Amino acid sequence: MRENTIRNKSFAFAIRIVKLYQFLCEAKKKFILSKQLLRSGTAVGALIREAEHAESKTDFKHQMSIAQKEINETIYWLELPKATGYLTDEQFQSINKDAVEIIKLLTSIIKSTKANINH
Fold it and tell me: Where are the domains of the chain?
């Protein structure tokens, strides 16, 4: 079976998000902010999994596009605790690098899917 890079990276990212959620709740007592981060950060992988069983290429593209929106929202929720001092620059850069890699992969997948649909 072929390795599914986006599936693996989004799952590993979700694990990091859950751990960051726990850190923000326990160490920083930031419940609302961390809940938003948890929702958007774990939704990415769930949408990618849902796309694996899409009914059509158009449905697949749609699910991946929603995942792209979710990872973009997650980047916002990562930037906020960084900007307000709840995450160090090092903590932020580490997880943000993963998020940016995922958004780039999703963008590439969406573009190639669009090209396949149009041919």
Answer: 5-117
